[in-house]
Amino acid sequence: MKLGRRVDFNEAIRFLLMYRRRRNPRLLIEACAPGDVESALKELYEERKADENC
After folding, report:
1. Maximum Cα–Cα distance for the chain, whole Å?
2. 3-state SS assignment for residue 45
3. Is the confidence at residue 6, as pLDDT, over 80?
4. Which residues have CB under 8 Å from 54's CB, separation 6+?
5. Could you give the CA distance from residue 54 to residue 47 in angstroms, rounded to a whole number?
6. H or E element in which residue 46 lies
7. Mean pLDDT in the chain?
8. Contacts of 8 (CB under 8 A, 6+ apart)
9. What is the dihedral of CA 20, 48, 31, 25, to 10 degrees?
């Protein structure tokens, strides 16, 4: 969001590695909480398809 554009996986991983010192336990708990797996998987596939079409 900061860049105002889509980023690829390499950029995302690079960002996460650079800012790994900023840990936020609340975000970790939220990311690991059980949720609606089917809708998350569907969204993942849709976003991946959109990335491939760009």
Report:
1. 35
2. helix
3. yes
4. 6
5. 11
6. helix 37-53
7. 80
8. 51
9. 10
Compute the distance between CA of residue 30 and CA of residue 49 in angstroms, rounded to an integer.
26
CA distance 19 to 28: 15
pTM: 0.38
pLDDT band at 20 (very low <50, low <70, confident <90, very high): low
* Cα Rg of the chain, angstroms: 14
Which two tokens mark 24? Answer: 């936020």
* Residue 19, amino acid: Y
Which amino acid, 44? L
